[in-house]
Amino acid sequence: MLLSRILGGLGRTLVTAGTLILLFVAYQLWGTNIHTARAQNALTDEFAEVLATVPSTTSTSTTSTSTTSTTVPGDPNQVDLVPTALAPADLPLPEYGDPIASISIPKIGVNDVMVVEGVGLDQLKRGPGHYQETPLPGQEGNAAIAGHRTTYGAPFHNVDKLENGDQITVRTMQGDFVYEVDSVVDGDHLIVKPDQVEVLEDKGDNRLTLTACHPKYSLRERIIISAVLVGQPAPPIVGQEEAREQAVEIVGETGSYERTEIDGDLSGESASKSPAIIWGLVCAGVWLATWAVSKLLDRRIGKRRKHRWMLTWSPYLVGVPVFFICLYVFFERFANLLPANY
User: I need a surface site. Which of 76, 88, 175, 293 has the fewest CB within 10 A?
Assistant: First the structure.
């Protein structure tokens, strides 16, 4: 009898644990998209307000004059270049978390996804993030952007399908800039270890580097997509160099970065342990309270009363929705303890 109870309790515990794990996986793959979608809408509105305050824009060019990109008729995956006026560099300097650009990659269905300044945990939940120690997209040098492949909207989910010649368009305060992928060698993409930070360094030309975890659903390696700027770069924004110096330490003449990993600041937040524990206890408390009320009603009603099951299960009509709301918040807090970039 005792053994039967022990095995029964163990079985229920394992089933509960398995269910919670499946729910958390579902939250990671689909629930996080809700958070990102809300953030992207807010970022889009904020970026539109910023663009409205900019008097003129700059963008790429194939000659000494600046141009802007437009879609080539009959081929939505290619863009043409149309002359436009250069913009001054005296523009608002983006702060950590601000929207700095929208990125479009027609080949893989990425359309006007907002990019934020910074690659911290909270930033990548909102969208792709720009490495602060690199130039802004469209400017001279190697601008680098990190993004998720399987969670939080998964903007870089299919970057492994990009081929040489595929175009990436970035819209910033300084205009529209077109890049062409040129990093695929014999059909293979560059795959590096997380500590190979040299992919973020200046390559002597003007390009855009995208980083994401590889393979999908793994943090073991990073896939690198590099694309060269078509045309002339935009000038740096006033005060930008000083801001970059605060984000990176240049060592000697090598130009190597202080960053020790491509996503060294994405390993999670230890400060999030307390909220996760608290919300976990709240979830357990809600479920136990619901179960206890149901049992109490069952004992008081007795077995002879008609529709007894409806009354004993009624607490779950209130408790279950509250439990899932608390569980969603718990998953959000618990996810902060996990590496961010996958």
Answer: 76
**Nearest CA to 44 among 122, 98, 114?**
114
Q: How far is CA 27 from CA 57, 139, 230, in A?
A: 40, 37, 40
- pLDDT given at position 77: 55
- Give the predicted TM-score (pTM) of the model: 0.75
Which of 247, 281, 305 marks a domain boundary?
Answer: 247
* Percent share of the chain, pLDDT over 70: 79
Mean pLDDT over all residues of the chain?
A: 82
Structural domain including 82 reads: 38-247
Same domain membership, residue 294 and residue 158: no
Report the number of distinct structural domains present in the chain.
2
